[in-house]
Design goal:
The protein is mainly alpha-helical and 250 residues long. It is built from eight helices and three strands; from the N terminus they run H-H-H-H-H-H-E-E-H-E-H.
Length: 250
């Protein structure tokens, strides 16, 4: 897996990941007849990209080889390969009558959350803040939104009616029919950004608590990543000033 990382340097990976996430969000805007097959392909591409780009572990961002294996580095590719296999089975219509939709969504939620955490880890090891690093930070935020959307879909499948969209007659307070995958992703990003338009609501305690967790994680991610990036910029400026002072002393 370390060799695979050499084929995709981490700065190129950041750009590719951001493009893939934005591509998925663009697919969500298409008509359902087109969005469904393209969504399967988009998530398959995203899983492959994450597996190649993030499964390298600490070696990806450092020349130092760890003395012993990190369990997270061993567990991550296993989850990634499982997601890819399940995604392929679901796209092909299932396996022996088992479509694996809920299993896939649960695995994807875990995989996306682990991926976002690893992106933050790799960003923390960056020495300089470049456009590629900023793209990686944005991609990590989008990964959190996609993960939240998948988690909401898992809850909706396990407990139907956990989320409902308010009908056009908002004043009447009437709830519409079962909400779909794309609408739940829209709701997830609304929670993540703490916008909360109010057109989709959770109807039970698990849905409410998940919405609160997502609303807390969104600003927390921004605070952590902004702190890391600002620290890198400050360190770079300080290093440059020290070098200039040394040059003047000479």
């Amino acid at each position: 897996m370390r060799r695979l990382w050499v084929l995709i340097p981490h700065h190129r990976f950041y750009r590719a990941l951001l493009s893939t996430c934005l591509g998925l969000l663009s697919i969500f805007m298409l008509p359902p007849s087109l969005a469904r097959p393209l969504t399967h392909g988009g998530f398959m591409l995203l899983a492959l990209l994450l597996l190649v780009g993030l499964a390298a572990g600490h070696e990806a961002s450092s020349n130092k080889v760890p003395k012993r294996a990190n369990y997270a580095d061993l567990f991550y590719p296993i989850i990634g390969f499982t997601v890819i296999i399940d995604q392929a089975l679901l796209a092909s219509g299932g396996f022996f009558g088992f479509d694996g939709a809920i299993t896939l969504q649960g695995l994807w939620a875990l995989f996306a959350l682990l991926s976002a955490a690893r992106i933050v880890h790799f960003l923390s090891l960056e020495k300089r803040v470049t456009s590629a690093v900023l793209q990686g930070a944005i991609a990590g935020y989008l990964m959190l939104g996609l993960a939240a959307g998948i988690v909401f879909n898992v809850l909706e499948d396990l407990i139907p009616g956990s989320f409902h969209a308010i009908s056009s007659g908002i004043s009447s307070g009437v709830l519409s029919s079962k909400i779909d995958f794309i609408s739940l992703n829209y709701f997830a990003f609304s929670c993540l950004s703490t916008v909360g338009f109010g057109d989709i609501v959770s109807t039970n305690h698990p849905g409410e608590m998940l919405s609160v967790i997502v609303a807390v994680v969104g600003p927390l991610y921004l605070a952590v990543v902004m702190g890391l990036l600002i620290a890198r910029v400050t360190a770079s400026e300080t290093s440059a000033e020290v070098e200039e002072s040394l040059e003047e002393m000479r």
